[in-house]
Structures
1.
Amino acid sequence: TAIFTAIVVTLSFQPLLYSLQRLFERWFFPSRYDYQITLRDVSREIASVIRLADLVNLVVRIFGRTIGVSETSLLLLHRDGNRFRSIGTELVKDLELYRMIDLPSSSAIVRWLQDKREPLFRDEIGAKLERAELEGNRKLLWDLSQVRNELERIGSDNWVPIFSKEELKGMLVVGHKRSGDIYTAEDIGLIITLANQIAVALENTILYQEIVSLKDYSENIFHSLGNGVLTTNQEGTIITLNRAAENLLGVTAKLALGKSAEELLGVRHPVTQGIQSSLRGRETTGTEMEWKLPNNTVVPALVFSKPLVRSNKAIGALVILQDRFEVRDLEDRIRRADKLAAIGTMAAGMAHEIKNPLASMKVLIQLLPKKIRDASFQGKLHQILPKEIERIDRIVEGLLSFARTTVSRKVPVDINHVIRDCLV
C-alpha cells in the first residue's frame, strides 16, 4: 500500500508542479512567451521567406513584439565591402522598434564578431574585462575596451553575427527589454537560434534579390533592343514581346501576351506566317515584308524567324523584326542626292538647249520693227515663237520633274501589255 501510494504521489506531482509553474509565470511574468511554441512558429515563417522586406518585418515582429525588446535592427554587408548598414527603413512597417545603424568594417564590434564568431552581449563585457585583467592579457583588454566604448556610443546591447560561407555577412542587433527584465538563458538561446535561422533565410533572400535583379537587367536589355523580338510557345501563343516589336506591330504587350499571332494579327500577316513556318521546323531569313498598322501607316521590315529548340525538341518560335523605314528613307535621300548631282552635270548641256530657242526668238524680235507689215514674216513669227516657247517649257519642266521627289503608287497592270511593249 505504501509503495502504491508513493507511485500515485510521484505521478501526480509532476503535472501539479507544471501547473503551479504555469500559474506562477502567468501571475508574475504575464508577458512571458512559450519558448518552444515561439521557436516552432517562427521557424516555419523564416523558412518560407524569400523577400528581404518580409524578412526585416519578421525580425521586427519576433524581437519587438514577441520578446519585447526596445529596438532591433538587421545589418547587411554593403556591396562595396566597406560598411555594414541596416536594411532601409522603407521596407519596415513598424518603424517604432527599428533602428538604423551604420558601421565601418574597421569597427571594433565588427572585428570582434569576425574574430570570435560568437554573439556579443553588453552585460558580459564587464566580466570579460575583469578576467582579461586578471590574466594580464593586454591585447584582449584593449579590444574589449574598444568594443565597450563603441557599444556605449551606439547604445545597442546585443549583437549576433550572421555568417555565410565562413564570411560575416550581417548582424542582428537587439536592444534591452522594454519591461526592464534581464535576458534569461532561454532568451539568449532563442536569439542565437533564430539568428542562425535568419542567416539561412538571408541567403535565400539575397539569392532571390540577385535573380530579380538579373531578371530586371535582362528585361531592360530585351526592351532596349532596336529590333523587334517576339517569342511563342509550341502552341503558337505569344509569351514575350519587346517595345520595338510593339511599335512595329501596332499592339501592346498587355494585349498580345497569351494570344496567338493569328487572332492578334491575322492569318496572312508575315509575322503569323513566320511563326507557323518556325513551328514546323523551318527558318525565314531576312524576308522583306510590309504591313499596315491600324492607323494606315505602312511598316517595311525584314522578318527573321526560327524554331526555339531545347534537347532537340521545338518548344516555340522566335521572330525578329528589323525596321526598314529608316533604311528606305536613307535610300530615298541618296537617290535625291544623286538626282541633284546629275542635275549639276546636266546644267551646261541644258543651258545650250535653252539658248537655241532663245536665239531664234531674239532674231525674230530684232526683225519685228522692220518687217511688221510683212505677211510672210508675220506667219513665221506666229509659227516659230509659240514653238520655241513650248520647247523651253518642256526643257524646264523636264528638269523640274527629274529633281522632284516622286511618290510611287501601286495600280493594277495588265501584264500582257507590259510584255508586248517589251517585245515591240
2.
Amino acid sequence: SSREELSAYLRQQRDTKKWREDVLQDVVRHEVSVHEDGSVEMKWSTDVYNSGDQAKDDYNLVSSAREISVPTFLMYGTDSFVPTDTGEKFVNALSMGTLELVEGAGHNVYIEYPDFVFQRANEFFSAEDL
C-alpha cells in the first residue's frame, strides 16, 4: 500500500533481507510505480521468484550469446535461483566472455554486493585488452 510497507516487506524476504539499507531504499524509490492512491507496484515482476513460472520460460540466452561480439563480463551468484551451469553455458557461448562466480550471492549480485560489483566492473572496463 506504500513505500514504507514495501520496505518492511523486502526486509523480511529471504532473497532481499540481506540487501544493504541504502540499496533497498534505492529500489523502493526508483524501481516502483506510484499509483494515484499512493500505493506502489514493483516495476519488475514478482514472478521472478516463482520457480513454476521459470520452468515455463523458453528464452534461450545461450543461442543469443553467439551474436554478441563485444567483451562481456557476467557476475553470477552461486545462490541464484538460476542454476550456475546456465551462466557457464552462456559465457562459453560468447566470443569474448568472462564469468565470475560470486560466492553466497543470489540473483541480484549488483544489489547484494554493490561495492564489489563496482570494483570488478571498473577493473573489467579499465582493462587494456578491451
